[in-house]
Amino acid sequence: MNKEIMKFPFYLIVHPFNGYWDLKYEMNKRINLIISFLVIFLMVLTNILRTQYSGFLVNIYNPNHMNSFLEILYVIVPLLFWCIANWSLTTLMDGEGKFVEIFTSTCFALIPLILLNFPWIWISNLISMEETAFYYFTNSFALIWFLFLLFIGNMTVHQFTPLKSITIMILTVIAMGFMAFLCLLFFSLIQQIIAFISAIYQEIVIRY
Amino acid sequence: MGKTERSFKLLVASIVIFTGISMGAFHVQANGQAPSYNYSYWGDSISAPDAYKPTTLVNGEDLGIGPFIEPSDIHVTEDQMIYVVDSGNNRVVMLNHRFQLIDTVASFDNNGKKDQLSNPQGIFVTKEKQIFIADTGNNRIVQLDQNYQLVTIIEQPSSDLLKDDFVFQPLRVVVDNAGRVYTMAEGVFDGFMEFNVNGEFNTFIGANRVQVDPIELLWKRLSTQAQRSQMVMFIPTEFTNLDINEEGFIYATNGDNSSDKIKKLNARGTDILRREGYFDPIGDIRYPIDIGPSRLIDIDVSDSEMYSVLDSKRGRIFTYNNDGHLMYVFGGIGNRRGLFHTPVAIERVSEQFLVLDKALGEITVFKATNYGHMINQAVRSYYEGDEESAYHFFKEVIEMNANLEFAYAGIGKALLRQGDYKGAMENFKKSLDQKNYSKAFLLYRKEVLKDYFPTILTTILVAVIGLFVWRFYRKLIKRRKEITIE
């Protein structure tokens, strides 16, 4: 049983149709969630190591701008935005997926990004300028694989037709933009309010 | 791929880092009164040691010829004679390399008649000591020999290329080794005017490209013919100055706001400037929006294709090497010594810089510090291909300023030549030079693989044989077990 669970994510990424079906209907929700969090953790780890240890020829980074905490947010924020936007849209558009299912299916789609990019962190230190083409090829391939899995996952989880899921995915991205805008608006307003209150406080303190 | 990823990250970061930064409080370091600075690969201005320090001031009163009135150009010959165009006094003043007065020229003998200069703006002196003066007020270029006797006068040209109402007002003039005269004239948008040896107008050379404002273009598209004729035409920007090097390439500055503010023109007028530095040579790359980018108004090219440009907005002088790496910056606007009011012209005399101030009517003389001298020497030896001495000079430079990134590439190249591939890699990494890093890395990898090749191959061979033996052994055991079970 345990071995089967270990094997399941790998099975899913190469057999997405069956894999996602099993994810939705067969597998234990709790175990799925645990695997999902593990995937997020590994994704964050890969990204941090990637910015720090990738070869000089593929990665010129400014150590002053490298921030591991931000790297965490770069993974988690878009992921949550995606899940929330997708969930909000699909509930309105007859999607069958629950939030947990959307979340787990998205996380499982991230696996190729980890599997392909992680080894390249180390290999990229051993390549020359001409060979970086392989690095970029693998990167792009991983990205396409990820998008494909995301698409299949969305289709299976919500039981959509392919066309509808593509529409939903595009709409989700737009919704993410809206959310980002609202967040910015909200926080800048909050900031204004805080600035206002602190100004009043200062004035009172200085006067009395 | 990398770029999109970065911009994506930036987007997310801007969503994430909503607090903390209030807009408008952008920290622009370049605007401060930092004595000297250079730009890092990341575009930050980082303070650097002074490359040049002001030593003396030269003005007309001290020379005993009355104050300079709005002088506009200086020129220095190879034997370090200094020619100052004292426009307001309609004369040319000659100084020797110790800044002592040699002579002044205000008039010359024109076919038996005494002829005067009128508001001259530019000067050029050839190796043969032929003096070319852009005599703007008289709409002509005057050529004098070394005894200040008139040789020829280039008058207003007539050509099909010129409009009928064209008035020839030369501002700056240079002469190449073949004796062709190039002049920058007022109101000419087609480039520099080229005159042949006989003083006949040949052609225009090196016109700037027209820069079109998209919004204005839209308005133009929407308006009628009558309205359009009332609007400003899209015309190429004028050049602001020019200089010529020994090989006959014209270095020019223009008032554009693009990456080709500085141009190196070949004989056909094509821009062949190398822009291999971390940034295009455009003067300041960071500036407050309300003041805007550097306005380059003079250029001086010296040996080893080093060139310096003068920014009239902030009074700074930027010097670049032949690849377009920013070597050093000095000068500024202000009232202290070494700062200017309205600088108009720069000229380099071996290890000295002369900066002419139009409003104050004085020349500030800058002398290279040890640091400046070392950079100059390093760039020179590097240009000449003498990597060995370039290595030593660059080492010295880095001792004084470890932040000068392009210097590491110079060290790296020398190490690469010496066969120290690992050292070369480290230095190229410091100068963020991926191309050369890759070269050094390939050689290093070959070297390492050569050393370890037998070991690696033996290990693989042993592993493969071991695997086979192991499989065979397991099969044997299995078979035996099966036999015993039966």
TrEMBL record, chain A:
InterPro entries: Yip1_dom. The keyword Membrane applies. Residues 12-182 form the Yip1 domain. Keywords: Membrane, Transmembrane, Transmembrane helix. It is found in: Membrane. The keyword Transmembrane applies. The chain crosses the membrane at residues 31-49, 69-87, 99-122, 134-154, 166-190. It is a multi-pass membrane protein. It holds the Pfam family Yip1. It comes from the Bacteria. This is YIP1 family protein.
From TrEMBL, chain B:
TPR repeats lie at residues 405-438. The chain crosses the membrane at residues 452-473. PROSITE patterns: NHL (PS51125), TPR (PS50005). NHL repeats lie at residues 105-147. GO terms for molecular function: zinc ion binding. The keyword Membrane applies. It comes from the Bacteria. Keywords: Membrane, Repeat, TPR repeat, Transmembrane, Transmembrane helix. The keyword Repeat applies. InterPro entries: 6-blade_b-propeller_TolB-like, NHL_repeat, TPR-like_helical_dom_sf, TPR_rpt, TRIM-NHL_E3_ligases. This is Uncharacterized protein. It comes from Gracilibacillus dipsosauri. The lineage of its organism: Bacteria, Bacillati, Bacillota, Bacilli, Bacillales.
